[in-house]
Amino acid sequence: MPGTEQFTIGAEVSCSDGACGKLSRVVVDPVARAVTHLIVEPRRGHEPPRLVPVGLASSAAGEIRLDCTSAEFDVLDPAEETQFIAADDDVPNYRPTDTVFWPHYGYRGARGSLETSDTIPPGEVEIKRGEDVQASDGHIGKVDGLVIDPDSHRVTHVVLQEGHLWGRKEVAIPVTAVTRVEDHIEVSLSKQQVRDLPAIDIDRPQR
Fold first, then answer.
1. Contact 90, 110 (CB under 8 A)
2. What pLDDT, in 10s, does the model give residues 113-123?
3. Closest CA to 177 of 139, 131, 145, 134
4. Entry pTM
């Protein structure tokens, strides 16, 4: 699709000085229908995923490239935080809403559990691979990625995974048909209308 970029979830992500990870999720402002951040899982498995401003990213041939070095990528804000939640009866005067950040888990001898939560900006939502897409008359498939305008970062299409309702290899739904983006995506089109959409050429990463 000329003049657009394709952020396929699962695509390899590279910095200016080498590979740095894979795209795991996309953060969208649901009001503006624009991508604001990419969430990239680093190649080093023990590192937290990073929240990458979309202005640093471009895509070509199924790969995403970041306009930063690996060192700069490593200091981007984490997309998740892990907290230690102490058991209520283990700490005197401890409130259930209190949290203790891991690894400082020796707080007053507290015992409890580690909980991980996302740290996306308030008012924005994540879109990840495999989220359900619902037509006006039922389920039609699952999200594979988004197509965006590289200048405005607005989403232009939602791409369905291979193996969707009709088995056709590429289906991209115009974002103008999207009516809801939360824990799933809803569109105003019927199954037949989605089926009749023209095929598009998508650069997919090698899986």
1. yes
2. 555 556 667 77
3. 134
4. 0.69
